[in-house]
Amino acid sequence: MDHAQHTRLDVSEYTEAVLTGATVYGPGDETVGTISHTHGTGQGAQVVIDVGGFLGIGAKPVLVPVTQLDLMRDENRGVHAVCNWTKDELKSMPEHRD
């Protein structure tokens, strides 16, 4: 997927309603997880990414700062994120518990 043509989200869009369900892509454009929910809004928000598993079963939730993601909309207005972590790097992070 060519993210160069996608529109970056404005900080005001860093909300639970906008980010929940967004696919997260890693450095090789592989799917590394899905945003399950957020903590806070705006620049200081953190997101919980579900990594691994199948259809949400067995996924490991990890908490990352929203500033570590490049959040954008594709040509169909779908929200997704790009990060510098591989799936294995995310899996090695501490598990997040609400």
- Identify the strand order in the major beta sheet: 1-6-7-2-3-4-5
Helix/strand structural class: mainly beta
Strand content: 25-35%
The oligomeric state is: single chain
N-to-C span: 33 Å
When the domains are counted, the total is 1
CATH class wording: Mainly Beta
The CATH homologous superfamily is named PRC-barrel domain
**What is the second-level CATH architecture?**
Roll
The third-level CATH topology is SH3 type barrels
Number of helices: 2
> Which segments are poorly predicted (pLDDT under 50) over 5 or more consecutive residues?
none
Task: Describe the protein's architecture and organization.
The protein is mostly beta strands and 98 residues long. The protein has a single domain (3-91), classed as PRC-barrel domain (SH3 type barrels, Roll). It contains 2 helices and 7 strands. It has helices spanning 16-19, 87-91; strands spanning 7-8, 23-25, 31-39, 46-51, 60-65, 70-73, 79-82. The chain has a 7-stranded mixed β-sheet. Strand 2 (23-25) and strand 3 (31-39) form a beta hairpin. The longest helix is centred in the last third of the chain and has 5 residues, at 87-91.
List keywords for this structure.
35% strand, mainly beta, globular, SH3 type barrels, 98 residues
What's the short version?
With 98 residues, the protein is mainly beta.
Describe the secondary structure blueprint for this structure:
Blueprint: E1 7-8, H1 16-19, E2 23-25, E3 31-39, E4 46-51, E5 60-65, E6 70-73, E7 79-82, H2 87-91
Parallel strand pairs: 2-7
Antiparallel strand pairs: 1-6, 2-3, 3-4, 4-5, 6-7
